[in-house]
Amino acid sequence: MIKFVLFIGLCFVLGGLAVASNPSPYYGVVGLVVASIAGCGWLVGLGVSFMSLVLVIVYLGGMLVVFVYSVSLAADPY
């Protein structure tokens, strides 16, 4: 179980680095998804499964809105 929690923690950190290092919103959102899933997996590993489910629903919903907004701004030529 310790190895699982450490692996999920490493995925969380790598997802955060992917968000910080990618200027493109298309690749940045992949890092956000990896980080959010890893964070929720970390919470499941610690035994807080309901909070993990709520975090996935709220965080991924908010992230989808921000991603669509940033893509629409990037596609606008003016």
- What gross morphology would you assign? elongated
- Helix tally equals 3
Weakly predicted, low-confidence segments? none
> How many DSSP-defined strands?
0
* Strand proportion: under 5%
Global structural class: mainly alpha
* Separation, N- and C-terminal Cα atoms: 52 Å
- Major sheet description: none
- SSE run: HHH
* Range of helix content: over 70%
Average of pLDDT: 83
Rg over C-alpha atoms, rounded to the nearest angstrom: 14 Å
Number of domains: 1
Topology:
Layout: H1 2-21, H2 25-46, H3 49-75
Helix pairs in contact: 1-2, 2-3
Quick structural gist:
With 78 residues, the chain is mainly α. Helices cover 88% and strands 0% of the residues.
Structural summary, described in words:
The protein is mainly alpha-helical. It has one domain (1-74). 88% of the residues lie in helices and 0% in strands. It is built from 3 helices and no strands. The radius of gyration is 14 Å and the shape is elongated. The mean pLDDT is 83. This is NADH-ubiquinone oxidoreductase chain 6. InterPro entries: ComplexI_Subunit6 (IPR050269), NADH_UbQ/plastoQ_OxRdtase_su6 (IPR001457), Nuo/plastoQ_OxRdtase_6_NuoJ (IPR042106). It is found in: Mitochondrion membrane.
Question: Can you give keywords for this protein?
Answer:
single chain, 78 residues, mainly alpha, 3 helices, 88% helix, elongated, ComplexI_Subunit6, electron transport
